[in-house]
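Researcher: Please predict.
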Amino acid sequence: MKRLHSNLEPYFEDGAKIMLFVFMVPAAVIFLSYTLTVVAHRYPLDYGEAPLLDQAMRLVEGENIYRQDFTSAPYTISNYPPLYVLAISPFVKLFGPSFLAGRVISLLCSLTSAIFLALIIYTSTKDRLASILTAMIFFTIPYVVYWSPLMRVDMLALAFSTAGLYGVSRWADNRRGLIIAGVLLVAAIYTRQSYALAAPLGAFVWLLTQNRRRAIEFVAFVGGLTLGLFLILNTLTQGGFYFNIVTANVNEFDFERLGYWFRRIRDTAPILLIFGLALLVLTFRGVRSALPSRWRGWQLITPYLVGAGLSALTIGKIGSNANYLLEFFAAISLAAGTVIAWSRDHRWLRAALLVLLALQTGHFMQTTLNEYVEVLNDRLQLGRDLNKLERIVKAVDDPMLGDEYMGMITLQDRPLFIQPFEVTQLVNAGLWDQAALIRSIHAQEFPVILIHHFVDWPVYKERWTPEMLSAIMQNYTPTDFLANTIVYQPSDHGGNGTQPSGLVQSGDRLQTYCPDAPWQLPTSSALGMMRLDTFELGFMGEGYENSVPVYAVADGLLLRRPNWNDAVAIQHDDPVRQGEKVWSFYGGMASGSGDSSFVVSEFPADSLDVPVKAGQLLGYQGMWSGEQDTPIWVHLHFAVVQTQEDGSFPAVTDGLISEGESEPNESERKYVIDPIQYLGISGIHFSKITTWSPLRCQETTQ
């Protein structure tokens, strides 16, 4: 039996290898297809791409990109050290502003990082399979696929860092080799400052086990060179270098965000995390003897993994993204390669580990396709919108304000006036006075302002202060909605008959009517209106959830069913169909999580036939989408609904509106009525397609 067991071992191991590579090949195809598509895309795909291009443009013009004086424009922050900007500047000088060169550099650095990860494992173990798998695992990780082709600093920093680690593992006894490795680690730090922990820690511990004196010399060299360059740059910029990369980077820490990313990592990479845990167990149990005597690479990789894990905790900072995880996943790829190499003499165990990696690869592919490829495809579908947005930017003079698509400005070889997220964080930290910018907005000095919003993530709250948004709403009008971006232009104070009119003071409230409309408008739509499903409207207000009031459109009797956490309905005498009854419905008045209701307390759940007056406060706009943890832009979900034969509210509409179903069936649609005739609005043409438009009243005949 033992002999049979031994004879079958190689077959199981070979089968596991085949299974793993069957998964790895399509994963590599997805990586190449995704990254090459991103590299070829003309327009910005990430908020952080435009600032880097802007800095390169300024550097080419001989400007100091680390300014400390923010009392005057431009209000821009260079929150990373200069190496990446220096790398792309020659291409900007030769070919003009473009995202292409920066993205190619990032992609090449991603490939380089994978090669050095493989070399680190091979140098330590001489295990070719473990080395190849280390590189291939790195490529399959969704966050690596997503970030590899973006024009961001991270992949260059990772390439320098992994090259430095390889140098340390390869030339531990070679002083000249260690100098080169030290310079590479310093280069990583001067590409992204967070790379000052994990790789230097791994290098130091590894050298400490080889030669204590050389380890101390290495740390002194790396630390001294890092500090010396810092003092030089800070002196040349008169303190601006420290302000930009340290002071301006201390964003607020959000433990909820940290928890969100922890859950994402757990759900995305459960098996890979087990490999990392296995390496830690082997290390901290002091099982050096359990490892092949020819290999001691864990003394480099384990401290690197610990340091990278600590660095990854900074993903809890406001504004963080998947780039905060790249070093951690490079380390955990090394951990997986290490465990595979350790299992070389245990073929049944190795076969099992390879099968686990195959399953993890399959899960990675599914995550990449569902989360990143799908989003990229959605972006690529916006080509027409992006072309139009670019034409709008081309047609107006500087200065302009923008966020997600401020890269449109840099593509025209024009500098940025502001980086809204960065300066908003400075305002929140009490480090910058926004008064001058607010005055400029009130003075309508900007011909165009672009504010982006994701349907399921109110990112504009992080990018603009409430005071900025308020000034924009008071002095600018939404004129278009392109690529999920609201285009604002200065308001026409002369009045052209297209904006809501008929402001009526009612007690301490200001009510808004369209001329000759039977009903008043239920709430503010300062950010426009969204067509939802057939004949349903989304009024998008300006402000945070639970701050934009919702009012009754007319007198009537209010209903709030027990399961309506976010909604009420009011039965009215129908002003259009004389002698009949009709319902107005108000949904979405709850927090994005659904936990908190913003319906006012005088209308508790199970309210029935409660008399209300036109203009009476019902609640406040919320971010409830109908699904847990998928908030949408602050809004009111409004509909006009027919009564049933007995005058009651249609039961089927509970599923249509309150529960947030996106595709009502034919029987449900028949109860919802076109609200235009009741509210006096125009320009809303209903279809299954969800699009945005500014609120306009119907023209009236004099």
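Model: Residues 493-511, 652-668, 686-690 have pLDDT under 50 and may be disordered.
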